[in-house]
Fold this protein.
Amino acid sequence: MKHNRAATRGRRLGAMAVAGVVVASSLALAGCSSGTAQSGSASGSGGGDDNTLVVWDYAQDPPQGYLDRFDAWSQKTGIKVDRVSIRYEDFLSKILQAAAANSLPDVIGIDNPWNSAMAAQGVLQDITDRVDEWGEWDQYYDGPKESATWDGKIYGVPNESNALIMYYDKTVLDEEGVAVPTTWDELRDAAKKLTTDGRYGFATSMTKSENSVFVFESLLWQAGKDLDALRTPEALSAMQYLKDLLDDGSMSSEVLSWDLQGAATELVNGRAAITFGGTWLYPWMKDNMATGHELGVAVLPAGAAGQASNLGGENWAIAATSQKQDEAFDLITFMSQSDQALSFLEDAAQLPSRRDIASDPAFSEAPFPTMLDQLEVAKARVYGPNYPQMADALVTAFQSVLSGEAQPEDAMTTAADTIEPLVAK
């Protein structure tokens, strides 16, 4: 797949896909457009005139393939697309404000953890019957399908996907005679062996952001538990594992300030041998590896319960108040077809959410088969409207443990006290 400046823009989509549910007080908007897709106002939309479909998303400076699909649909149908791009930091609050004012757009491009929250709050239209009639839902990977589903109903169609995966400095591992780790135990042993003066064996993100929750939830699922079972020995083992890597000296305490891009930077600059990172980081990492060093890609090491990863990406959804739901669904399914999706996915360095598109030769070259294997076991964050508070509780837990302020059991108990009542709602 090609790696170009458009791919750099696309990696911003991936980064935002795990940036978390952030609600900012400012409501600044940035309208942008392509061809027949005109920029518009984010207020009082509700579908515009009879020949206009209003779309809101948060893609800033997206790759051309993303925009071309709107033009192609407009040319096919004669319906104008009024696309409004809103800053990610403002997006969720703007959606909720528009819902209260009955001024939502027709189509909404959303970070997939938001899908269940918006569905639970009545913002999105149930499209289960439309999807069933469409007949292509079985082409989607399980994780992306789960991300668009709430309470047994479908409220979105995945646009693209990404996942957490393992990157390693192949040159260093080969020189040190260390095999690529496939289990937690093997990773801990490898990280010890690969740690030297000036280089840690392992780096990841444990900062105060959803980047780090993206990592921790993957470990939690690999241990065999979820957010409703943080008091269990299995859940505790995920937190203890991170502390053990730190106590071994195999992982720097600087992980408390690194996001996924920061941890990846440690690897490409030779200061770490292994890291967990988003699949969207691959083009940048490959192009920036230290001279003479080769980047390796592998699925995440398995925990006691086996393989798991966290799913990122965006979904398209229809606002419950839209008066043009037929046209909105037609646009969404049009953009989901292979001939429309491939160019965007290549430009954006993202993974397809559909198996039929994943079978295209564009995804046959390394490392994409490995990334698609990881996507097969990637889980969606489907926790409903209280997920932001749950994520905050997890951040407090692992930050307190890795900073030495709390022991794993105490931190997990505190997190459970916050999360359990929210899961039940």
User: Anything to note?
Assistant: The longest helix spans residues 387-402.
